[in-house]
């Protein structure tokens, strides 16, 4: 890690176990369209958001209730010159107990200000980490990207109804 890697931190009044469980529930906070497992060492899962972003993550560190690290093995953006910009970066979730609070430190290692997607990606991570993931931890319900089929069907219904 270097000082420029993108990092977010928050604390919650939940146990490290509850925070860890929420982080591994990627469908509950990032996207309902995750394919594969995100809850064990060496597992691989795929993320997709419309035709805008696709990635394949491999879990390369998995220390229950303490740390998870994903390696972005493949990535595709449709909005950057380098479509594979995240490929080779790592996403780290470090969990620690601080008296009656549990702290989560998220670091996207390799997402630095010189990257083309930095502004868009950091806005998205703020939404997903400090918004959806924190909400999932605190309330049991996050705000992940919905499964795309449901969106497509709703848009078709609106179009058919002339809305």
Written overview of the protein:
With 163 residues, the chain is of the alpha+beta class. The chain is 29% helix and 34% strand. It has 4 helices and 7 strands. The protein has a 7-stranded antiparallel beta sheet with strand order 1-7-6-5-4-3-2. The longest helix is centred in the last third of the chain and has 22 residues, at 118-139. It starts with 5 loop residues before the first strand and ends with a helix.
Q: How do the strands of the widest beta sheet line up side by side?
A: 1-7-6-5-4-3-2
Give unreliable regions as ranges: none
Write down the domain tally.
1
Number of strands: 7
What is the element string, with H for helices and E for strands?
A: EHHEEEEEEHH
CATH topology type = Alpha-D-Glucose-1,6-Bisphosphate, Chain A, domain 4
Helix content: 25-40%
CATH class: Alpha Beta
Specify the CATH architecture.
2-Layer Sandwich
CA-based gyration radius:
16 Å
Distance between the termini: 49 Å
Determine the structural class based on helices, strands and strand pairing. alpha+beta
The pLDDT mean sits at 91
Provide a count of the helices.
4
Please outline the major beta sheet.
Answer: 7 strands, antiparallel
According to CATH, the homologous superfamily is: START domain
State the shape.
globular
Strand content: 25-35%
């Amino acid at each position: 890690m270097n000082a420029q890697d993108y990092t977010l931190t928050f604390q919650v009044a939940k146990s490290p176990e509850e925070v860890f469980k929420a982080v591994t529930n990627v469908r509950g906070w990032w996207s309902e369209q995750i394919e594969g497992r995100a809850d064990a060492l060496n597992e691989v899962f795929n993320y997709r958001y419309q035709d805008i972003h696709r990635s394949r993550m491999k879990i390369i560190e998995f220390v229950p209730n303490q740390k998870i690290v994903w390696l972005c093995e493949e990535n595709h953006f449709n909005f950057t010159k380098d479509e594979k910009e995240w490929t080779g970066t790592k996403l780290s979730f470090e969990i620690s107990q601080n008296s009656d609070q549990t702290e989560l430190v998220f670091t996207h290692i390799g997402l630095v200000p010189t990257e083309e997607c930095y502004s868009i990606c950091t806005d998205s991570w703020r939404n997903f980490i400090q918004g959806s993931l924190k909400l999932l931890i605190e309330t049991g319900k996050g705000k992940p990207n919905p499964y795309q089929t449901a969106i497509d069907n709703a848009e078709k219904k609106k179009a058919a109804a002339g809305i």
